[in-house]
């Protein structure tokens, strides 16, 4: 029995791709919307640019979508431009959909809800653990803008909503702009091939403080749970694995997985964007030697995003009490999530 007709927006990304596969396996009819048509098994592809209103209307015309899962964003040069572009994308989506069939819309944002935008990262200085009830951090933030568009559309059209706030997401995806797991795997593989030390690129605070992360399948499970649990509608939920760790331990365990000597954390950050300045040619040599499927390192690694996460100067821990109180109790060991991802990357010849 089919559970509903889902539209996963951002179906080629780390969140949307894993969610789409999960929903197919769980018995949904799934359409996957992205600028490049997805090629996932069981997912009906739709290619459209949400910034192009007529093209979006044409692509979605007549589709009996019951549930929207919004898992995409676009990056611009500054946060004001991020707000404008991302708001327009979501507005165009809701204008194009048949509001009579739409029952529920889910939005994925993240921990910048509490930390502030990229331009004001860490300016919120909210006490940990972060709770869903925290006030918004002053200033432009496209997460807040997306919430406002969602709330307005839900009120106007009468559908239910949820907002999910994961921390850094671990999961399989190629060509994703925010993929720390694959970025670390590529960095470790380069260190292994070149003999350079496996240096933690971030701050002393991140090295020593407690933190958490989000497995993509934990997020997928929570998103389906929220839309199928009547009491969970119209709520925002933090979404993390349920464990906490310190990078000073996790980094060494990742180093051991790759057979690397782990250097002590430097006194000042050593950003991957700088460490990996020569990565393009190095990775092409590695890919050729090991017959890897992707020789372009820029399609695998997002140095800037990993630098931003690991360079923070404050502790980042999310409170998941609210989701547990509402009945969601799934958890995942973060170390295992990393290792499972690395195993898959090796099996699919993405890393040696």
Can you walk me through this structure?
- The protein is α/β, with parallel strands linked by helices and 352 residues long.
- It folds into two domains: 5-169 and 213-239, NAD(P)-binding Rossmann-like Domain (Rossmann fold, 3-Layer(aba) Sandwich); 176-212 and 244-315 and 332-347, no CATH class.
- It is built from 14 helices and eleven strands.
- A seven-stranded parallel sheet has the order 3-2-1-4-5-6-10, with helices on both faces.
- The model has no long low-confidence stretch (mean pLDDT 95).
> First CA to last CA: what distance?
42 Å
Uncertain segments are none
Q: Write the H/E string, N to C.
A: EHEEHEHEHHEEHHEEHEEHHHHHH
Number of beta-strand segments: 11
Largest sheet: 7 strands, parallel
Q: How would you describe the shape?
A: globular
- The tally of domains stands at 2
Name of the level-1 CATH class of the largest domain: Alpha Beta
Q: Which CATH-level-2 architecture of the largest domain?
A: 3-Layer(aba) Sandwich
CATH superfamily of the largest domain: NAD(P)-binding Rossmann-like Domain
Radius of gyration: 20 Å
β content, as a range? 5-15%
Kindly name the structural category. alpha/beta
Mean pLDDT: 95
Task: Kindly report the spatial arrangement of strands forming the biggest sheet.
Answer: 3-2-1-4-5-6-10
Number of helices: 14
């Amino acid at each position: 029995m089919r559970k509903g007709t889902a539209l996963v927006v951002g179906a080629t990304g780390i969140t949307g791709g894993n969610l789409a596969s999960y929903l197919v396996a769980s018995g949904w009819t799934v359409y996957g919307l992205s600028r490049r048509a997805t090629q996932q098994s069981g997912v009906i592809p739709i290619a459209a640019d949400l910034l192009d209103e007529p093209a979006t209307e044409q692509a979605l015309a007549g589709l009996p979508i019951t549930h929207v899962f919004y898992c995409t964003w676009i990056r611009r040069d500054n946060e004001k431009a991020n707000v404008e572009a991302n708001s327009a994308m979501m507005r165009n989506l809701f204008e194009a959909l048949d509001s009579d069939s739409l029952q529920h819309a889910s939005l994925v944002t993240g921990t910048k809800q509490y930390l502030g935008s990229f331009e004001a990262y860490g300016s919120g200085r909210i006490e940990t653990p972060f709770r869903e009830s925290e006030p918004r951090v002053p200033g432009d933030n496209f997460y807040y803008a997306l919430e406002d568009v969602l709330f307005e559309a839900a009120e106007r059209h009468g559908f239910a909503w949820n907002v999910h706030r994961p921390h850094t997401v671990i999961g399989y995806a190629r060509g994703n702009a925010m993929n720390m797991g694959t970025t670390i795997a590529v960095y470790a593989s380069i260190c292994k091939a070149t003999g350079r030390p496996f240096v933690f690129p971030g701050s002393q605070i991140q090295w020593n403080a407690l933190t958490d992360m989000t497995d993509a399948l934990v997020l997928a499970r929570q998103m389906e749970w929220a839309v199928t649990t009547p009491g969970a509608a119209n709520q925002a939920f933090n979404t993390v694995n349920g464990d906490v760790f310190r990078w000073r331990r996790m980094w060494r365990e990742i180093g051991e997985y790759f057979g690397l000597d782990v250097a002590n954390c430097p006194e000042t950050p050593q950003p991957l964007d700088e460490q990996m300045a020569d990565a393009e040619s190095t990775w092409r040599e590695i890919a050729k030697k090991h017959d890897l499927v992707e020789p372009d390192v820029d399609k695998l690694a997002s140095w800037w995003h990993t630098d931003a996460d690991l360079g923070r100067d404050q502790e980042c821990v999310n409170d998941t009490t609210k989701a547990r109180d509402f009945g969601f109790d799934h958890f995942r060991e973060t170390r295992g999530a990393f290792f499972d991802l690395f195993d898959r990357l090796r099996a699919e010849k993405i890393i040696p």
